[in-house]
Amino acid sequence: MSEERTVEAQFTITLTPAPGIVAETGRFDMTKDWTGAIRGTSDGVMLSAGDPRLGAAGYVALEVVSGSLDGRAGTFALAQLGRMTSAGQKLDWEIVPGSGTGDLIGLAGTIELLSAEEVHNLRVTYTLPD
Predict the structure, then answer these.
(1) One-character DSSP codes across the chain
(2) Tens digit of pLDDT for each residue in 73-115?
(3) Could you tell me if 112 and 122 are in contact, meaning their C-beta atoms sit under 8 angstroms apart?
(4) Measuring CA to CA, how many Å separate 63 from each of 1, 25, 44, 52, 95?
């Protein structure tokens, strides 16, 4: 396994409301345009529950990124788990094990959201086999 690398990337997102799958939940289809160390696009789905207006909610999301990471071409999937409570917000975000294709086979890692304005900024920490 190669050494761990840390890079930065950005994305803009388009969320499109879609019919919920389970009662009392919401669904959004999403498309992202990536720049920085990740270049390309991604498509995914977000499922949510709770009431963000009251400060208590959560979501899960899966998406597939097509393009490149640090100049290596392929695809990979990302999984997110977000939670909002009166104590604050928490986001766990990682590269789905076994999802890398092309030059990204064996990709593993995590993502940290740095800011979530119109352009979202993140730090990607990853490894790839030698």
Answers:
(1) -PPPEEEEEEEEEEEEEE--SSTTEEEEEEEEEEEETEEEEEEEEEEEEEEGGGTEEEEEEEEEEEEEETTEEEEEEEEEEEEEETTEEEEEEEEPTT---GGGTT-EEEEEEEEESSSEEEEEEEE---
(2) 999 999 999 999 989 889 999 999 999 999 999 999 999 999 9
(3) yes
(4) 25, 19, 4, 22, 10
Integer Cα distance of 90 and 84 in angstroms: 7
15-48 pLDDT, tens digit per residue, is: 999 998 899 999 999 999 999 999 999 999 999 9
Cβ-Cβ contacts under 8 Å for 47 (sequence gap 6 or more)? 21, 22, 25, 26, 27, 59, 60, 61
